Amino acid sequence: MKKAYRIKKNEEFQRVFQKGKSFANRQLVIYYLKREDQNHFRIGLSVSKRIGVAVVRNQVKRYLRQAFHELEDNIDPRYDLVIIARKPTKDMDFHQMKKSLTHVLSKSKLLSKDKKSKI
Questions:
Q1: Which one-letter DSSP state was computed for residue 98?
Q2: What is the DSSP letter of 17?
Q3: First to last CA, the chain
Q4: Shortest CA distance to 27 belongs to which of 102, 79, 80?
Q5: Please, are residues 63 and 96 in contact by the beta-carbon 8 Å criterion?
Q6: Are 73 and 115 in contact (CB under 8 A)?
Q7: Is residue 42 a contact partner of residue 2, using CB atoms and an 8 Å limit?
Q8: Which residues face 67 on adjacent strands?
Q9: Burial of 15 (0-12, 13-18, 19+ CB in 10 A)
Q10: 33-84, pLDDT tens digit by residue?
Q11: Which of 38, 50, 55, 81 has the most C-beta neighbours closer than 10 Å?
């Protein structure tokens, strides 16, 4: 994922947390904030030390980035998204992670309706 598509600064994370909306399932929490001035969505990932050691946390982040990469054509481009991984993610494989991410994105109405069937 390109650097321009990531949220890295604390101020940007805080803006999404404070002004955005959220939705959650057992594995993931998503915060999203509409930004009309951008032509591609940006994501920020948060994986706590409670998830596990660095190897496990990095694996969770890799899975999430790859899932976003595969879903990027279906996601509304006008949003900043912050994804927080919960404890069950440490035991998930990539396909389970993608399914959980798809669920939370569709429930928060960030996926394109006409392309959901292809996922």
A1: H
A2: H
A3: 20
A4: 102
A5: no
A6: yes
A7: no
A8: none
A9: middle
A10: 998 888 889 999 999 999 999 999 999 999 999 999 999 899 988 899 999 9
A11: 81
> DSSP string spanning 58-96?
HHHHHHHHHHHHHHTTTB-TTEEEEEEE-GGGGG--HHH
Structure tokens that stand for 58 in this block: 């990095």
Whether the Cβ atoms of residue 31 and residue 69 lie closer than 8 Å to each other: no
CA distance 40 to 63: 20
Helices 54-71 and 94-107: crossing angle in degrees, nearest 10, is 60
**pTM across the whole model:** 0.88
Burial class (CB in 10 A: 0-12, 13-18, 19+), 14: exposed
Joined together, the tokens standing for residue 85 give 């991984």
Report the Cα 55 to chain-centroid distance in Å: 19
Distance, in Å, from the CA atom of 94 to the CA atom of 77, rounded to the nearest integer, reads 23
Tokens read off for 14: 């805080």
